[in-house]
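Can you make up a polypeptide sequence alongside its tokenized fold?
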Amino acid sequence: MQFQEKLKMLRQKKGLSQAALAKNIYVSRSAIAKWESGLGTPSATNLQALCTYFGVEEEWLMSRNDLKQQVELTRSRSKILILALLAIVVPATGILLGHCITFTARRSVSLYYPPLSLFGYIAAYHSALYGFLCFSALLWVGTIAFSVLTIAIRTLQIHTRLCLWGNAAGLAVCTITFLILFSLAAAAGDPVYTLPVQG
């Protein structure tokens, strides 16, 4: 039995709500909820207060395995947050670049603004690429949305594998689709669209 299960069992045996227990040991109700959901562990002072209140030993209430699992969970959360941030930054950067870059007649990259953007070119001149762009856009928006939810909703982080694989997969898919889209657009450069090179 893990720490959160033991704590919930002890609280229910006394017929206490989370708010009532929190009041008795002078912490917030959200702290009790966090401990019982496995999203955190009490400090040494709060652990001692729990043990004194319930009349149990610290070693029983929180074993070494509980501490080890908490360390592993903290590491997993760090990976989740890093991947989630990357899975927000990469699609956002790609969308920004797609609206600001194009290819000149010499296939060199230059910065312009819509309607001379790469996305504007695809929408105007290549219907097949436009379909791929729309499909990719859904993936990019979905990746950003999932990443934002991962950061914002702490209870979602309990499913560490889901969050890790979700953000990693989204990041990989976004990067690959950007590379494919930009490469195809560059290869299909249209003289009607490209600007004359001065000099």
About this structure: Residues 76 and 161 are 9 Å apart (CA to CA). Residues 3-62 form a domain with the 434 Repressor (Amino-terminal Domain) fold (CATH 1.10.260.40).
